[in-house]
Amino acid sequence: MTIFSKVRALTTCVAVGAVMSAATAASAAELRGWNIHVEDYPVSIAMESFAKEIAEKTGGEVTAKIYHNGMLGDQPDAIEQVRLGVIDFGEFNLGPMGQAVPEANVTSLPFIFKSVPQMYRLMDGAAGEAIGEGMKAKGIVPLGWYAAGARSFYNSIRPINMPADVEGLKVRVMSNDLFVKMVEAMDGNATPMAFAEVYQSIKTGVVDGAENNPPSYESTNHYEVAKYFSLTEHLIIPECLCMSLKSWEKLTPEQQGILMEAGRASATLQRELWAEREAASLEKVRAAGTEINTVEDKAAFQAAMAPVYDAFLAGNPQLADLVAMIRDAE
Which residues does UniProt assign to the signal peptide (predicted)? Predict the structure, then answer.
C-alpha cells in the first residue's frame, strides 16, 4: 500500500468514526428536569425513579438529570422554559399551569373535587384527557398526574373556621387570578409571591399566612412562623410530571412510549409516598405545637365561592362542560 493509499484509508476511517460518533450523540439525550422540592420529598423520589427507569429501559439512550430545590428558577418561569424547550421536563402544580393552559384552571376552582381519590379517578380518565389536550396545544406533554393533597389555610393570627375568619388576613397565594379571587371573595388580602419567599414574609409580617398542603407546610418549616393550620381543604389541585413538546418530538416513538410508561409508574409511586408523608407531616407539626382545627361547615365556604365560579365561567364559557363534568361526578 502506498503512503497515499494509507493516508486515504486512515482519512476514511476517521470520517466513518466521526459519523458514528455524531450518530451516537444524536441518539443519546440527557434531559434536564425542574423540581421545586427538597430531595427527600415524595415528588423528588418519584422523579428520580422516573429518571432511573427511562435510563434502564432505553439502554442509556435517554437519561435525565433532575435539578431539585428550584435550582432552575421559580415555577411560573420554569413552566415557560418547558414550553420553549429550554428545560426538558418538570413537575408542576396545575395552579400556575393555568396561566398558560386555560383547561388546567378548572382544577383550581375551589371545592371542584370532592376528595383526593375522586380527583385521581377523574384525572386518570376523561378530565385528565381534556386537560392534557389543552396542555399539548400549549407545548406541554403530560406524563403522569401527581398528588398534591388538599390545600388548607395557615396563618400566624387565628384559626379559620368560617369565611369571615379570613377577612383582613394577608394571604400568600400562587400566581393565578383564581386564587386571588378566592381569597378576595372572603374579604382577605391575596398576595401572589414565590414559594421560596413565604417563610420570611410571614416571619416579618409582609403576609399573615398562606395556603398549602401539610407536607409543604411542614417541609418548609412554615409551622415555625404560622402556628394555626385550618383544614379547609378548599383546593385539591393535581400536579403534573410533564415534558416539553419540543423535547418530546426529538424522541423516537419507542422512547416516547417508555417515557409515558415511566411517567405513569412514577405517579403511582408518588401517590403512595404522598399519603404516607401527609400523615407524618401532620403528626410532626402537631407535636411541634401547631394548632390544627377541622372545619366542620364547608358549605359556608362553598357558598362564598359562587362569585369565583360565575366570573370564571363568564370568562371561559368553552370550559362549562368540563366544569360540570367534574362537579357532577361522584
Answer: 1-28
Alpha-carbon distance of 152 to 232, in angstroms, equals 5
Contact 167, 186 (CB under 8 A): yes
pLDDT band at residue 9 using 50, 70 and 90 as cut-offs: very low
pLDDT of residue 221: 97
Q: What percent of the chain has pLDDT over 90?
A: 85
3-class DSSP state for residue 176?
Answer: coil
Residues in the chain, overall count:
330
- Rounded Cα distance between 196 and 187, Å, is 25
Mean pLDDT calculated for residue range 294-321: 94
Sign of CA dihedral 280, 281, 282, 283: positive
How many whole angstroms separate alpha carbon 102 and alpha carbon 178?
A: 11
The SS3 assignment for 241 reads strand
What does DSSP assign to residue 108?
G
Q: Give yes or no for residue 316 having a pLDDT over 80.
A: yes
Q: Any idea of the CA torsion for 287, 147, 235, 72, to the nearest 10 degrees?
A: 90
Q: How far apart are CA 258 and CA 240, in angstroms?
A: 17
Q: What domains sit in the chain, N to C, each tagged with a CATH number? A: 25-146+239-276 (3.40.190.170), 151-236+280-328 (3.40.190.170)
Q: Where are the alpha helices (DSSP H) in the chain?
A: 3-27, 42-57, 75-84, 94-97, 102-105, 116-123, 126-137, 177-184, 198-204, 214-219, 245-248, 253-287, 298-304, 306-315, 320-328
- What is residue 113's DSSP assignment? S
| Cell of residue 174, nine digits | 400562587
CA distance 227 to 293: 11
CA 235 – CA 150 distance, rounded (Å)? 6
* Set of cell numbers at residue 267: 405517579
DSSP 39-68: TTSHHHHHHHHHHHHHHHHTTTSEEEEEE-
